[in-house]
Amino acid sequence: MGIIQDLFGKSPFGPLVEHSKKVHECVEMIWPLLEALIDEDYPKIRVLQDKVSKLEFEADNIKHSIRKQLPRRYFMPVDRADLDAFLHCQDKIADKAEDFAVILMIRKTRLHSSLHEKFLTFVNQVFQVTATLLTATVELQSLADTSFGGAEADLVLHYIEDLGEEEWKADRMARNLSIDIYNLESELDPLTIIFYEKMLLTLGDVANKAENAGDMLRNMIVK
Which of 161, 167, 174, 221 makes an SS bond possible with 211, Cβ 3.0 to 4.6 Å? Predict the structure, then answer.
């Protein structure tokens, strides 16, 4: 039995799903962080930033555990390098969520009232992207059971296609929001404009990294 376990190893797909869920917990913290900024509740931002940092650390621990235990002799239906690339992309999503929390913490920036709903709408669209990725990712174990083929693979590819469309919507929203920000130049100081742009770019990166992870998942299926 020991020889068989050594040959086949332990499947990494269950832990990968757990890592994806933990990454999504990091992303979910963006909403209360933005609400705290709108309310100008800067002490709460610090508390939330600490929570995001802890969640990102937990995601890192799962990531390190997967890489440490990923057996090189495990008979996987996908290339080990592709799997590791997917893990790396997921890791970047959590990093960007933490970056957003840090940006809000390091300066007591007041968000212009005309931008409140626009930023909230944009964050909701970013969630649409990351939630679609999570929906696809939770199917990893089922994909492994079917050797990344069949109806299950077709379903995940459909999710990934939806993910691409949602990320395109997020990109379009980001461009429009950037225009709205610079239309306020006569009312705001340059440093505030810079911080708004940093917020916007970091949120956009969350969606971009999610799309990259979806591309890696697609690679695992179509190869």
Answer: 167
Amino acid type, 187: E
Q: For residues 222 and 149, what is the distance between their CA atoms, to the nearest angstrom? A: 9
- Token readout for 115 is 């931008």
Q: What is the Cα–Cα distance from 18 to 21, expressed in whole angstroms?
A: 5
Q: In terms of pTM, does the model score above 0.85?
A: yes
Q: What is the pLDDT of residues 52-105, one digit of tens each?
A: 999 999 999 999 988 887 655 455 667 778 888 999 999 999 999 999 999 999
SS3 for 178-218 is: HHHHHCCCCCCCHHHHHHHHHHHHHHHHHHHHHHHHHHHHH
Give the right CATH number for 2-222 from 3.40.50.1980, 1.20.58.220, 3.40.50.970, 1.10.10.920.
Answer: 1.20.58.220
Contacting residues for 148 by C-beta, under 8 A, at least 6 apart: 77, 78, 220, 221
Number of Cβ atoms within 10 Å of the Cβ of 43: 8
- And the tokens for 149? 């083929």
What is the token pair recorded at 143?
């994909």
